[in-house]
Design goal:
By secondary structure, the chain is mainly α. It has 2 domains: about 60 residues; about 40 residues. Helices cover about 80% and strands about 0% of the residues. The chain is built from 3 helices and no strands. Helix 1 runs antiparallel to helix 2. The longest helix is centred in the first third of the chain and has 32 residues. The termini are far apart. The model has no long low-confidence stretch (mean pLDDT about 90).
């Protein structure tokens, strides 16, 4: 096996592991909601944990972002994007909540 073939094999193996992990986490999410295996109060925390696991799998395996020095700019770009999305989401919730409060003052 040449070095190039070995590299392609490792890359394919890495993506296959990512795909399997993603499918397993997705199936676990659906099963936690669709079955009565977990108590009702544990379903939401389980979904949050599974979603965070899914995010980590996608960031590490499919986006190739890790904590190495070469990937530092990619990590900062991802964190900045998350910050902007958070500002937009919470700002929207704040504005809509304020509008709701102002419109309901007469009742």
């Amino acid at each position: 096996m040449t070095a190039r073939n070995r590299e392609e094999y490792e890359e394919r193996r890495f993506y296959t592991i990512g795909l399997v992990l993603s499918v397993v986490l997705t199936v676990m999410s659906f099963m936690s909601v669709m079955t009565d295996y977990l108590p009702v109060t544990w379903v939401f925390p389980a979904l949050v944990i599974l979603a965070l696991g899914q995010i980590l799998v996608h960031i590490r395996i499919f986006l190739h972002i890790d904590l190495s020095r070469q990937k530092r700019e990619d990590l900062l770009m991802l964190l900045f994007t998350i910050l902007l999305l958070g500002i937009m989401a919470f700002g929207t919730i704040w504005v809509v909540g304020d509008m709701n409060m102002r419109m309901m003052q007469g009742h």
